[in-house]
Amino acid sequence: MTFSFRRIALLSAAVSVACTLAGCASINAKLADGMGDYIPQWAGGLPADAPPRPGTAKYDEYMKERERRRQQPAAERDNNAPAAQTSSPPSQ
Q1: Banded pLDDT at 92 (limits 50, 70, 90)
Q2: What was the pLDDT predicted at 61?
Q3: Helices of type H across 1-92
Q4: Cα–chain-centroid distance for residue 88?
Q5: Phi-psi label, residue 11: left if phi above 0, alpha if psi -120 to 50, beta otherwise
Q6: Are 69 and 77 in contact, with CB atoms under 8 Å apart?
Q7: What is the pLDDT of residues 16-58, one digit of tens each?
Q8: How far apart are CA 63 and CA 51, in angstroms?
Q9: How far, rounded to the nearest angstrom, does the alpha carbon of residue 46 sit from its chain's CA centroid?
Q10: Closest CA to 56 of 37, 81, 31
């Protein structure tokens, strides 16, 4: 079986492309976790009313407030809800 220069070049190019794509996939998965925080909402980033990330001090405060509201009676909970969360669903 003979190997020509063309076959070796094509094989090395295919391996190079495959390795590059595999490297991009692993890097993009790690970058995507944090980049959503810095992209504006109009460009597809996190909405303004998104909860904070787990592991931060704001997240602990958010969870305490959420638990406090969950334990309130339903009548009081509706009166204390922020206006952003009580928006109506889009009409069709």
Answers
A1: very low
A2: 92
A3: 5-35, 57-70, 74-80
A4: 24
A5: alpha
A6: yes
A7: 988 887 776 666 666 766 676 777 777 777 777 888 888 888 9
A8: 9
A9: 8
A10: 37
